[in-house]
UniProtKB/TrEMBL annotation:
Pfam families reported for this sequence: TNFR_c6
Protein name: TNFR-Cys domain-containing protein
Span of the signal peptide: 1-16
Keywords tagged on the record: Disulfide bond, Signal
One Gene Ontology biological process: positive regulation of T cell migration
Domain TNFR-Cys: 58-99
Organism name: Oryzias melastigma
Repeat (TNFR-Cys) residue spans along the chain: 58-99
Disulfide bonds: 59-74
InterPro entries (alphabetical): TNFR/NGFR_Cys_rich_reg
GO cellular component: external side of plasma membrane
Length: 220
């Protein structure tokens, strides 16, 4: 009997308590009332009371609300001041500023209504080629040059030059530089030219040795 009375008292106390939460389009005031929210583009200037409804006021310039709310002030509009960003759509009382990326940049933190942070496209290094150029939503994709080719500017890979039969390979190729070839005949001539001074000296010495005896005999 006592336990039944306790259960009954508990049920009555639960049913007599006010609702712990407000409706979907209501907010709880500081006095505990469930007040109707203000529409987008507006904010609360005075909470509701037992006799009066919520008083709403338009968002000042440079601020906005984009959904029903119980805010006492409107949040400030975003500014597209980061590197690589520009204003695609200006802020209104019911929507925030929409920012997007300029050419040569990509969005690092894309959002439903735009971008809040951008970075410059990466540049591929020497010894690499550009596999996929950067876009507004993705960075550049680089790839190493395959063996037997090289790249100086990081754009495309070029096959090493093959020296002809009349040339000799002066320097091997690498991922950043081409093979260096030189003319074998030119090398030969250059080598010969380098001996000319020595040959001249030898010839002069021989002439001197051979000429002096004849000169001395005539004097006698």
């Amino acid at each position: 009997m006592i336990s039944s009375l306790l259960i009954l008292v508990g049920l009555v106390s639960v049913l007599s308590e006010p609702a712990s939460s407000c409706g979907e389009k209501e907010f709880r005031s500081k006095d505990g009332f469930c007040c109707p929210m203000c529409n987008q583009g507006l904010h609360v200037s005075r909470d509701c009371t037992e006799d009066l409804g919520t008083k709403c006021q338009p968002c000042p310039e440079g601020t906005f609300t984009n959904k029903p709310n119980g805010l006492k002030s409107c949040p400030s509009c975003s500014l597209c001041t980061g590197h690589g960003l520009f204003t695609r759509h200006n802020c209104t009382a019911t929507s925030d500023t929409v920012c997007w990326v300029v050419d040569g940049y990509f969005c690092v933190t894309p959002e439903i209504s735009g971008c809040s942070f951008a970075k410059k496209h990466s540049k591929c290094k020497s010894g690499q080629k550009t596999k996929e150029p950067g876009s507004s939503t993705a960075d550049t994709v680089c790839e190493d040059c395959p063996p037997g080719s090289f790249s100086v500017d990081g754009l495309n890979c070029t096959r090493w030059t093959e020296c002809s039969e009349s040339e000799r390979q002066e320097r091997d190729g690498s991922s950043v530089s081409d093979v260096v070839c030189s003319s074998a005949s030119r090398h030969h001539y250059t080598l010969c030219y380098s001996f000319v001074p020595f040959l001249s000296l030898i010839i002069a010495a021989v002439i001197k040795v051979c000429w002096n005896p004849v000169y001395n005999t005539n004097e006698l």
